[in-house]
Design goal:
702 residues; 68% helix; elongated
């Protein structure tokens, strides 16, 4: 391995590094067919190895990243690009791919997983292309290790991490194009590299490290850097990368909703985190055992002496590699690539994942390329030095490595097949992680396992008594179990810590409403609405509580405000129609019912209410009894004539149209259903209607 080094080339881009088993320019011309056979085989193997995750259920954040309903339209696509807060992170190209995927296969998880897997396979092939262009030995082995390494399962099997695989394809494509530019100095190649770099940045801003990575490659190739030739052309990419990195850092720190997040570590402690992270990631690359979705969060303290060994060790490693640069620059270049690409998430700046853990497998997706290429090149170089039996040994070792990695990846990807199984596996590795308890509790609650869900929420609160999401979720479970006082206590604990959480104010309003404390419910809904004035659920709940209080005018105003923001809200049109009917505003009520039917032609309540108005309210101008009959008949058809109230409306419509025989027969049918259901009060009211129809008159509301 130590003898592998680049020689200074006399011409731009010509890499005089000697022939290699991986293929240089000569093999690139003569072995193209074999390369593409390898590429197809590698992508196919990648798809096969990940088949346990093909139908994997959504896990943490997947429900957020898969395009939500309010962004699934063409206008939603525009909002993804134009509104910083429309998605949890500003990766608009990544979220545009999610938008397109939803239109292609909706809620089917297979499509989302397959896209991630295929992109990962393509990235591995592009990795091999780059190594071949650079004449680095072991290109095929390096690409296969990258494709099959279990440390990358998190980036591939987790739907949310589409941004990793997608950005990697653009990152590697930009690198290929720029290497072509470095060789030819053609503006077209430079432009292609720039476009692909921007696309990568719009997928995930970790690709902003590409210019620095290219400088490392050029230093490795030539032994020195030229300002005019190497640095200056990369300056625009450095500026774009820095701007994207600063934007991401700001978003991670401030948050889309403006919730300030403090890192809480001194500069020295951040260095301790970064130093330890380097060795952690190297360890997982060479020994991918006990992989975890969320690793235990380290307790970092500058007062603990042994924690300084990690950054000191990392610095000493770089110094040692620098000292052997005259023999081979490759090890130092590989480590500089690894550490430099890892730097944005190494611990010096706040990163959202750090609230759970300072490390994660998906954070070393691109950085791992440097170490993997060095390892594969070292094996290939050793094999070449010990010919003829070295080639056989190389193939045997490579096969053993790839088979082992494939088995581990198969097993690791199987964890993603089931949400409950996934969280239980994560919990087995990290029992003191409140986030895992929270998410497992949420999945169990959705499945109706409320007692077990509550147990996990309590475990989360034992670990972190101020875990707001756990308090809120436990409150929801307790509320559904009828323990309203306990639920209210948890909501109040949340609001004492952070009074600006609209969801918790809303949940508190629901709990008060179930207790019959309508005044407190209205106040809680009002606070939630002040925080989220466009929230239709909160406003409709407030309106409903006002109705129960008898404050009908205020309720009507709330529904009108809701429709100003959401003019196509069917439920608001229906409720407003009912309230306006009660207030005697029949013409306006009819207008809302008709609009509701335009939006949803099969809503039985709307069909029935509008038909009743048209049949029984003589003050309506231009009312059409025939229309009342059509609406009522459709309501009865949709309910299969099983609802007495719909039959009662149909009878009234027949009477309004002068079809008294049908009105009498239908009224008797309605009375029979009401009596069979034990609804004597309703049956009594219907008998009054029947008497009017038998007298040959339509029913008129008094």
């Amino acid at each position: 391995m130590g003898r592998w080094k680049a020689k200074v080339s006399p011409a731009p881009g010509r890499i005089a590094n000697g022939s290699s088993p991986a293929g240089g320019p000569t093999q690139e011309r003569s072995g193209g067919r074999w390369f593409w056979l390898f590429a197809v085989a590698l992508v196919a193997a990648t798809i096969f190895i990940y088949c346990p995750a093909w139908q994997g259920e959504p896990i943490i954040d997947d429900d957020i990243y898969i395009t939500p309903p309010h962004l699934r339209s063409a206008r939603g696509l525009w909002r993804i690009w134009s509104e910083l807060g429309s998605r949890p992170q500003y990766n608009p190209l990544c979220h545009s791919v999610f938008w397109l995927q939803y239109r292609l296969w909706g809620d089917s998880m297979f499509g989302y997983h397959l896209v991630n897997i295929v992109l990962h396979g393509i990235a591995a092939v592009m990795f091999a292309m780059i190594l071949r262009r650079l004449e680095i030995p072991g290109a095929y082995l390096a690409a296969a290790i990258f494709a099959l390494h279990p440390v990358h399962v998190e980036s591939v099997a987790w739907i949310t991490e589409l941004k990793n695989a997608l950005s990697a394809v653009f990152y590697l494509g930009a690198m290929l194009a720029y290497l072509r530019f470095d060789q030819t100095r053609r503006k077209t190649a430079y432009a292609i590299a720039g476009v692909l770099f921007v696309l990568g940045m719009l997928s995930k801003t970790v690709t902003g490290t590409l210019p620095a990575a290219l400088l490392v490659i050029f230093w490795w190739k030539r032994g020195r850097l030229s300002w005019k030739r190497d640095v200056l052309p990369l300056a625009p990419l450095f500026v774009l990368g820095l701007a994207g990195g600063l934007l991401t850092a700001w978003i991670e720190r401030i948050g889309i909703e403006g919730a300030q997040r403090e890192y809480g570590l001194t500069l020295i402690e951040r260095c301790l985190v970064a130093g330890r992270a380097v060795w952690f990631y190297l360890g997982k690359l060479f020994c991918p055992a006990e992989l975890s979705f969320i690793y235990p969060r380290w307790k970092v303290s500058q007062a603990v002496w042994w924690q300084y060994l990690f950054p000191i060790g990392a610095v000493l490693l770089l110094v040692a590699l620098w000292s052997i640069r005259n023999r081979s620059r490759a090890p130092l270049a590989a480590m500089l690539f690894f550490i430099g690409t890892l730097f944005p998430a190494a611990g010096f700046v706040y990163f959202g994942w750090f609230q759970f853990s300072y490390v994660a497998d998906h954070l070393q997706y691109l950085p791992s390329l440097g170490v993997i290429s060095l390892f594969a090149a070292g094996l290939a170089t050793l094999a070449r030095r010990f010919e003829p039996w070295g080639r056989t040994a190389f193939c045997s070792v490579a096969a053993a490595i790839l088979i082992s990695l494939a088995i581990l990846t198969w097993l690791q990807s199987g964890i993603y097949a089931n949400a409950v199984g996934f969280y239980r596996a994560a919990l087995a590795r990290n029992q003191e992680c409140p986030k895992i308890h929270l998410n497992l509790g949420a999945v169990l609650a959705e499945q109706g396992e409320l007692d077990e869900a509550a147990s996990h929420y309590r475990q989360a609160l034992r670990i972190d008594p101020n875990y707001l999401e756990a308090h809120n979720n436990l409150g929801i479970v307790l509320m559904n179990q009828g323990e309203l006082d306990a639920a209210i206590d948890h909501y109040r604990q949340v609001l004492r810590i952070d009074p600006n959480l609209a969801e918790v104010h809303y949940n508190l309003g629901v709990a008060f409403g179930r207790q019959g404390k309508l005044g407190e419910a209205v106040r809680s809904y009002g606070r939630a609405l002040a925080l989220r004035p466009r929230d239709s659920i909160v406003r409709s709940s407030l309106a409903f509580a006002l109705v129960k209080q008898g404050k009908l005018d205020e309720a009507i105003e709330q529904y009108r405000q809701l429709l100003r923001v959401w003019p196509d809200h069917v439920g608001a049109h229906v409720k407003l129609g009912e309230l306006l009917t009660g207030a005697g505003s029949f013409e306006e009520a009819v207008g809302h019912y008709e609009r509701a039917l335009q939006l949803r032609p099969d809503v039985v309540a709307v069909l029935n209410n509008l038909a009743w108005l048209l049949a029984t309210e003589p003050s309506l101008a231009g009312r059409d009894p025939a229309q009342a009959v059509r609406l009522a008949e459709k309501a009865c058809e949709l309910t299969r004539r099983s609802r007495p109230d719909c039959l009662d409306t149909l009878a009234a419509a027949y009477a309004a149209a002068g079809r008294f025989g049908e009105a009498v027969a239908t009224a008797k049918e309605a009375i029979g259903l009401a009596e069979a259901a034990g609804r004597d009060d309703l049956a009594g009211q219907m008998r009054k209607h029947l008497a009017v129809y038998e007298a040959g008159r339509p029913w008129r509301e008094p």
